[in-house]
User: Fold these one by one.
Assistant:
Number 1:
Amino acid sequence: MPENEFSSRKNGRGEDAAQNHKHLDELTADELTDALSDLWDVMDETNFDPTQLNSYLAELEKREPILSDFDVDASLASFREKHARLFEQASPVQTPASVKPIYRRRWRTSLFAAIIAAVMMLCCMVTAQALGFDVFGAIARWTEEAFHFSTSIQPDEDQQNLPNATADGEFSTLQEALTACGILDPVAPNWLPESFEIDTVSVTPQVGVVRIRASYRAQDKNLSVMVRQYDSPERMDSGVFEKDSGNLTLYEQGGNVHYIMSNNAQVTATWTLGDRTICSISGDLTVNEMKQVVDSIYKG
Amino acid sequence: MKKHLTHFFVLICVFSLCTSMIVAVGAVNHNINTVTPNRASDYLTYYDAWADTGAKREVIISCDVIATGYMDLIGSTYIVVQEKNGSSWTGVATYFGSVANGLLASDTDEHAGSITYVGTSGKQYRARVTIYAEDSRGDDSRTVTTNTVTAR
């Protein structure tokens, strides 16, 4: 333990130190210098022992005294005079030995607390995940379960008008309904798998949105084309398409990116027109058939 | 002292791990029977719910549902209008969907419905809307929260 290590070093500096230095008498000046160098190397801010260093220096002084004409006090005074600004600004000096251990202790405590906090958070997350809250993969799982468009476009007050719809009711073809609503971009498929036949085409204005829908039937199979014209771009954010965990395919055609995804037995392709219209085709098709249907929109 | 503190933290850590694992295993076992792992739907293709303001003090909650095929019932079964008071949301009105009030429709593959709540001018409102579709094989539902609007 670091605590024990630090304590033992501290204890070593006490009265036993004098005994430890007896062997210095037997060393030559060079050996003393080497030993002093070794001692200096192993010392750091936690085990710095000036007594030990002084005893080495005293032994060296005995063997090779410093020249008598060297004036220590004058040298110190000269040094202080040269760096007077440093000594004026300096606060009471704290030895590294007294500061660093506290700092280190605090740092270790903080690290330990952080580790504990991280472990506890992980535990809580595991529990929350097990309880049904999707913590770990909220974003990834969300994309595995549902699809929606998200726009960063801020609503312009002046442009929050009702969509172009002037129509309301039943139509005989999807293209007719789209034209009535002022949608001139290609949306209506020109090809569907053979057995599908048109069932209903309707346009229904609702608060903030015009709903255009065409449904097709083929015995026990369904297919529908949906267009939603919103009165402001941010309205597009809340509509959700169900999907399963299968791959989502990006299929580019006619300058639009079509997002093709499966929802159990059905397949959906969805795309946007401008900043406030969502289109989609959903039904009992394969992904390849869906791509053919999308191709047909632009090959008129 | 520090030694004791370290032991104390280690004990807390071990205790947390043990309790979390026990609860987690229990919860997983519980969820196996109660939660469908994959939220793809055999009934719902698309749904949307949103809030809008109408005439003075009116808050309009609308929903739009498209099913995978013809359904016996489709629409919204439950709408809770919430009002913001300070930093919390409080339910102020509840609407149960029915064919009669237009929140549900029968024998169709899509439906849109709405309700109008008369609130207080200047207050913020939103709604929790439960989307629903049902046929002879079973049913499915999703609950979503609408955007927030301020009553005029």
Note: Chain A touches chain B through 49 residues (CB under 8 Å).
Number 2:
Amino acid sequence: MRLKTSFVILTIVVTTCANFSCKKVLDVNSTRLASEENLWRKQEDAKGALIGIYTLMRTAMVADNTHWLMGDLRQGDFVSTNRSDLKAIIDGQLNASYPVMNRITNWRRFYSVINAASLFIERSREIVANDPRYTRINNEVDVAQARALRAFAYFYMCRIWGDVPLLITSHDGEFTTHPRTSQDKVLAFATSELITATKVLPFRYGGTDPILPGLYYGSSWTTWNGVLFTKLSAYAILAHIAAWQNNYLDCETYTKYFLDNSLQLNGDGSFGVKFITTDELTENVNAYSPFAFKRAVQIVGFGFEYGNGEATANGHIEQLTLAKPIILKEYPEIFVPKDTIRKVFTSATDNRFSIDPLTKLYRTNYFTNYASEQPIFSKIKVIGEAQTSGNFAFFTSAVLFTRLEEVTLLRAEALAALGMDNDAATALNQASALRGNPSFSLNSGVNIIDAIFAERRRELMGEGWRWYDLIRYNKLKKNNPAFMALIDKGGIYWPVSKDVLNANNKIKQHPFWN
Amino acid sequence: MVKNNKVFLGALLCSTFSFFNVHAYAVVKIDTALLNKSSKNYALRANKPKQTSLQKSKMSDTLLQDSLKGVLKSNFVLKGKRDSIQIALLRNVPNLSVQQILKGNVAGLFVQENTGEPGTEQSMIIQGASAPIFTKRDVYSLQPAVYINGVYLIQDNPFAYDVQKYDYNRIGPATNLLANIDIDNILSIELIKDPVALAKLGPNASNGAIWITTKAAKSGLREISLNTYAGIIPKNHAQTVNGAFENKFRAPFYQNYASAANYSNYASFLRDSTNLDYFGKSNWNDLYFNNTPIYAANLGITGGTERANFRFYGTGMRNASNADETSLDKYNAFFAINMLPFKWMTVSSFLNASRMDRNRNKSLRDRFAEVRYLPDFANPLSPNKANYQLFLDEYNKVVDDNRNNLLNGSLSLNLKFTPNLNFTTAVLFDYNEGLRDLFYPSTIMDGVNFVSGFFGYNQRFALNNVLSYQYRLKNDHVFSFDLGQAVQTDGYKYNYARGYNGNSDFIKINVVKGDPDNANYLNAINNFYLFRYTDKMQASLMSFYGAVKYGYKDLLNVSAVLRRDGTSNGQPDNRWITTPAFSIDWSLKNQFLKNDKFFNALNVEASWSRLAKIFLDDRFGAGPQYRTEYGWYEEPTIPTFGGFQGISRPYNTGWVGYGIKLPHVDRLNLTVSSAMLNNRISGAISLYSKDDKNQLLNIPLSAESGYASIYKNGMDINNKGIDLLISAQVIKNDKKLNWTTALNLGFNKNQVKTLPDGLSELVIENNKLQVGKSVGAYWLYVNNGIYKTDGEVPTNPGTGQKLAFNGLALKAGDPKWVDYNGDYNITDADKQFIGDRLPKLVGGWNNNFTYKNFDLNFHFLFAVGQSAINQFDASRYDFINRESARDINSVKEITSWQTSDNLKNYPIYNVWSNVIPYRADQDLFLESASYVKLRSVTLGYDLAQSKFAEKAKLGFRRAYIYLTGTNLLTFTKFSGTDPELINYNGIYSGTSLPIARTFVLGVKLDL
């Protein structure tokens, strides 16, 4: 009896246990990732992967404030309050061993963009076959954006490091090491990719653009303006690559196309593009600031929108420049000394910064607390939900590569370099028309190239241009032996992080930094 | 069941390590004090009258013995070697966590208690580290499995660190989940290192196991035990300093090296020596340190009949620190029941519930790490009491509730079909949840208030079945067979939200929109700026195994285990692994020395096993994958662009490819154990070699791939060592003085055997792994003094260039780093392996004296051979960079306003130099962190044994009063406050709360 009972129970138990299928128990699908089999199937995958490339590019530019540390500091207008690492950059001691410098000189984050873009170019067409909602045209436009982003990443790196390894496929899952490729080759590749892209990219997404009419991923141009690369974004980058290579002939062509077509960005419910006033630039008047939110004026730019939870402390120039009375911080980390301000802003009517000769009052658009030893560079101040001051030091300013005024000044530079001084002066005056200064006249005795670069210095202060402008300026003028020596020896390029060198022995440090 | 086993049945079952908690506690009355003993001895004494004197049993407690040897059990029993600890003596020490209980009490276990803050997480490493510990999350995968009555306790999963910027504390309450077990309810704790014993437990126990058995339900007359203690932690004495001290410290740097610009940037709070905030009285310590009470009380009741009996246990306690008003309150309820509905069926069950509330520290670092928002550090907290009081007044508005609810238990059923055939099935579960509600008012946060809420749970459910059969061939050959199967499913989840800049300091919770259809669902209602995180992970493990044991007379035992385990965290073609284990145990005593008077026991055993190691993360099972990770160093978790979430390859966390295999660990143990001179001396020595093979390592990839790293199999790490236990009854005089002494030692030598891809060395950020070196070795620049003048800096005769540091020419005031490769450029290639993070020797020494009814116990703890990087000093000297960096390391805590006579002095380098002379990655700041500590002293007296009590016939079985002092003395050369307060990665940051001296007075009553 006892045995019998036992065996009955045993049977029950064993059957219960046997019901566990091993496979079922062990097939736990992770909710934390998308596996290889599950991606590249649906339209949403294409959107996610495409947005992913943009997000990576934004990270590459802003991580540890790269864009400003590399663009605005070296030989620039800013002075470090007490941070030794920033001072080392300003002084050009780029091999100083501060942690921030080691991080920003690691180009890995740019190659993440490149790899993601290559992968997108290779794989996204699979979705066309799998998801009827995802059209071939949609895919072609997406691939063109990926190409443009990849080219932009290469250009951005070449400005920093000169020669960098050129990888044009994703090598997904295969990891090989590559040496540096000459900068000319890399930029030639970037140029050809951008030219390919310009043929497909629309002026506007989700609107009435003839190339790509209708909603784009279910959203209209009001959603997409200032977010995605347009045809004009590609032209702006092309123009800059050409200028960087001293190829002002092409630069002139691209900027011409850009300016002739810039109004194509307008309409379909967006804020549109225009030359903005100084108050719009610095005080977000009419919500037209090119730094706040996302705007079509951000020709190439990446937003951090408050409402989307993208506000951060790091990744904005405000973290370096703002202090009391705009935010609660006691001292800024970098500031523009008074002497420099006076030297740069020479006109008494400049509404970015000038001192009224009679009242001695000064304009605060660019600088706050001018009277103090450490004036606050307050041109860019997008705090919290696009406020211009506040306690909450989470910033939402976009990282901006170029805007209409910048491209116009680039065109002026190209024209001047080509000797078309009259046209150059026109472009210069067009770019600076709303800044309150008297128009530039070729009769003023000031060299047109000097005038253009002086205007760039004023207009683009704190936008990550100064160092690269100095390089182009000196390449044009060739009148500064020390700087020319720097150019000749490759000292204008940054050293690469030791983490890069440790992980790939084919990469050699630039001899200038050894 | 075999014949001779029947004799001992009841007793043996009690001491069995039932995997399923199937203890037939019901059958025989036993004295709990004896339960730690080897079952052999124990069985003989089981029917003797009660021996309540705890002191009499501790001798054999420390022995490395097989308490089940030669005995056959009814069900799945864990057989093998293990170290049990002298639990009886430890009941007098006010330990909070399992880690603290074990510290220094068992050979081969290194416990890291790196802050004195009660209830914080602690680490245990058994027989050396099997993987590098570079970050805090690395520690999680090295922890041993902890079982309570056979239930494998689930711990926090490190996946929460994915969304954290700083890893000082895990988000949520971050309470040590192993603080939930109360020592007065514990019957035994054993450390399992034996290969075959671990093989029986399976891959869960691949890092070793800690086996806790609670006091059991048992039949007989109702027994009540009441234990209570109250104590005090006296306040620390601090040598406080003010701004004048700091100014004096900085003076030589300014005199030697400062430029005018440097002077003009002089720290603002130190500029004005008439400012009483910084140059007034430094007496913050009056408020920071307090004489703090601690207390505990618990009650245990057991009783019932032989067919049904129970145990109830309840406790309430407060553990605290004398610093910063930190404490932990714990409530614990335990209930166990055994039933014997039929002679052939036993039902056992227990339920253990706890609640823990933790009062955390007020340190700025922990606060800003949680908040991830750094205000201006220009003016630190003032050392003045009045000012500090103002801060504390504001701090009173803080809400910081940390709560954990824990529940575990099991229900098991044992069926004895025939005397030789047994079936056991058990359901086991463990659930714990952590909650943290946090609010910081704007007044202490630079005008921006902060709120965060955390809820997370870990849950485990397991079902285990075992069929056992025993067979005896003639009288000399005994076979036992086990067939087992187990399923285990784990789930981890958390929801976490942090919000900033709320409307006022009066609304201290985050109220969100609750309508799921609303576009703003879960957004704050016109209030905090919110960031939300949620994550969830599930894992399962399925196991089958068979075990055979063969015994020949009382001479030889041979065991073998073969198991097959499948894990959901392995890749589909690689998730199953078959692993064997063998052991042989030979009694030399019975073979050769049967009549020898000197040896009471002499055994040798060899044991080998292989076990799979299971990944803690589910990402490796998926193969190539896409994730959302777009952050960077300073902002690790930014999720979207343009409001849309992207998806990419895991560029930041590392490529996971196909073909990832499950790692495994091979263990080989050789043990000799003996008892001599009428059991007065006993000892065991165990030689082990542990190979953790084919482990996954996240190795750096060439930056051009876009990936930070790639996960690759192929890291083999070997730990060799000796565990030694000796105990002796030095003086034995039952009536008068007794002295017993017990020493445990664990020597360990760690070595990297292979690295992925056959690499011989690998640089991972500031660390380097090299084949043949220890995984814990530091990799540092060697400092050899100071260059007094520019002329002292050597010049490369080939190029005429000065010796450089990473390309930057060295100057006067820079350190003399050694250029090992002679290329006139000091780079990573010149870094050397120096020192080690983990000790070469750990151990403890316990002494117990009894005289009549008095007893005196003292316990020493030691760890030798480890070093620490004194980052506290590095940042003290590197004040320029620290203060200007404006990162979390710039924080100046209130406790930084003190000094100590032990502080080391370093050369005065040029703090403004771009080579960062006071960088932490040089041997200048490497110090030996070896220590010996007098961890506890207890003086006790048993009233029940006194003549007075015996006459009075009070009915106490025991009435013991005791006085214990803990953390009494430390012997070390280390210059910091305490050589134990070192982070897992070997860095001493000086931010931990002290492990404080504690005195308690307690009473233990058994009725």
Note: The two ends of chain B are 36 Å apart (CA to CA).
